[in-house]
Design goal:
- There is one protein chain.
- A hairpin with a 6-residue loop joins strand 1 and strand 2.
- The protein has a 6-stranded antiparallel barrel.
- It is globular.
- The chain contains 3 helices and 6 strands.
- By secondary structure, the chain is of the alpha+beta class.
Amino acid sequence: MAVDKSAGDPSTLPAIFPAWLDRIQIKYFNPVVKPLSRYLPGASVIRHRGRKSGKPYETVVTTYRKGDMLAIALGHGKTDWVKNVVAAGEADVRLFRRELHLKNPRILPAGSGDRSLPAALRLQNRKVAVLVTDIA
């Protein structure tokens, strides 16, 4: 798996969604989807802590699992939750009704075309970076 060390800085990641959509999603969409995520295919809630405050956060994400690997397309580019997870080196995710502990987060740059990614995610990886983690 080719990992670009410079891709570890989320501020350099390409975003395909505009900033105004991020704000709408955080304020309106996420609170509605979070309780339903247990029942929606691919929808998961990732739990992480703030880098400076240590405050716990929950963010709705779309996950792709392949074996002992969990991957998330980073269509929003630079996000706080990505920085928090990479800085902490771990996070927890609720995937359907299961709680999984994630470790060793790394970012694959856009266009890396890694064959270890699930097929649907490889298509997205053409334009966006992907956060890849191991399931503990």
